[in-house]
Amino acid sequence: MLPKAPITNIYDLKKIYARRVPKMFYDYCESGSWTEQTFRENVSDFDEIKLRQRIAVDMTGRTTATQMVGQDVAMPVALAPVGLTGMQHADGEILAARAAGKFGVPFTLSTMSICSIEDVAENTEKPFWFQVYTLKDDDFMKRLFARAQDAKCSALVITVDLQIMGQRHKDIKNGLSAPPKLTPKSIANMATKVGWGMEMLQTKRRFFGNIVGHAKGVTDPSSLSSWTAEAFDHSLDWERIKELRSWWDGPVILKGILDEDDARMAANVGADAIVVSNHGGRQLDGALSSIRMLPRIMDAVGDKIEVHLDSGIRSGQDVLKALALGAKGTMIGRAFVYGLGARGEAGVTDALNVIHKELDTTMALCGKRDVNDLGRDVLMLPKDFDHRWQMA
Q1: Is 279 designated active site?
Q2: Does 1 map to a domain?
């Protein structure tokens, strides 16, 4: 029997992931809204940024260690909140949190997770971050915050770009649900995913653990869809965001900022950090990529609030480019999900190792020993990179 090929990049994990996970969950991860233009450009726009190679610089004693919202991290990368992670691999949120904790980076649990806050807290040793949506039900929201505080979550991430859900064609066509609906098409596909199926049969965690049994009227999966359709707060405004921030005693990160004016407002309402993000291209298709908007947002608020970036990161070089443009930290979503779906906890560790090695090696070849010293001097940008499009 031939030895398994080594994992040398994120796309090695993606190939295994695509073979192992049912189509509806693969498509949930690997898709965007509408035409998927923004989903694609989140990745391709990184390619327009070139690196400046430097030589004859002492590269001993390199470090990627830093802080994100005042917390020590082994590298400036957090695992982003991803819904249905426990459908990519049985007990997926627990496994991803364990891998992140051992590596020394934050894991962010989504409200729409399969494993509950309590599940993750009971089965991990390190504090994790918790993500919430802006929902209308104050009673549910306050109890959700209290549960996260009881679990000793070390930061709250409020997603602010999902008042109204963007249309994701593949999810609609696949009839995405957790657990998956049993149709002739889905059964035929899942029959080819034996390893995934055997693991799912051995866990009791197959529903949305933070919602079923906690939200009013949601006692089983069949009652979840009607609750979800009504739950998101279409009237969200900055006063509401300020109110939600006041409910949490600890660092608060606002995720989903893609405009300079919104970044300024985020700084004004007391957020500790923002995440420049377009929801991985899953909300407003046709919006600019996160990396293209980052320089403008740094110019607007970089001296007022900590700035992170997600959407499109597939390598340690992408992380370096975001940091060199001013971000204090980054988030990876699809990159760690590829690893989780491919190999469980070990696959998430693979993904983190790949990104760390790429970050460390690229940093060295650019003449930097400390990740905190990265700046625009290591980059070569097109003259019109962040000003190619102007407001009409």
Answers
A1: yes
A2: no
Crossing angle (nearest 10°) for helices 10-20 and 345-365: 160
Per-residue pLDDT tens over the stretch 308-351: 999 999 999 999 999 999 999 999 999 999 999 999 999 999 99
d(CA 63, CA 59): 10
- Strands (E) located in the chain: 50-51, 66-68, 71-73, 77-79, 108-109, 129-133, 155-159, 252-257, 273-276, 306-309, 329-332, 379-380
| Domain-embedded: residue 157 | yes
Query: What CATH number has the domain bearing residue 330?
Result: 3.20.20.70
SS3 label, residue 84: coil
- Strands 66-68 and 71-73 come out as antiparallel
Percent of the chain with pLDDT over 70: 98
Secondary structure (DSSP) of 63-77:
B--EEETTEEESSSE
- Confidence at residue 94, expressed as pLDDT on a 0 to 100 scale: 98
- Identity of residue 98: R
Q: Are 227 and 264 in contact (CB under 8 A)?
A: no
Whether 130 and 157 have beta carbons less than 8 Å apart is answered as yes
User: Which residues are 107's β-sheet partners?
Assistant: 79
Task: Please name which of 335, 309, 322, 271 lies closest in space to residue 100, comparing C-alpha atoms.
Answer: 335
- 213 close to 147: Cβ distance less than 8 angstroms: no
Active-site residue, selected from the candidate residues 89, 279, 308, 356: 279
φ, ψ (nearest 5 deg) of residue 57 = -120, 130
**Tally of domains in the chain:** 1
Residue 143: which domain range? 10-380
Name the 3-class secondary structure at 107.
Answer: strand
Assess if residue 342 is contained within a domain: yes
Rounded Cα–Cα distance for residues 239 and 160 (Å):
13
Q: Is 2 a domain residue? A: no
Query: Which residue carries 């994990």 as its tokens?
Result: 13
Partner residues linked to 76 by β-bridges: none
- To the question of pTM greater than 0.85 for the whole model, the response is yes
Token pair, residue 35, equals 């035409």
Which residue, chain included where needed, has tokens 């209290």?
146
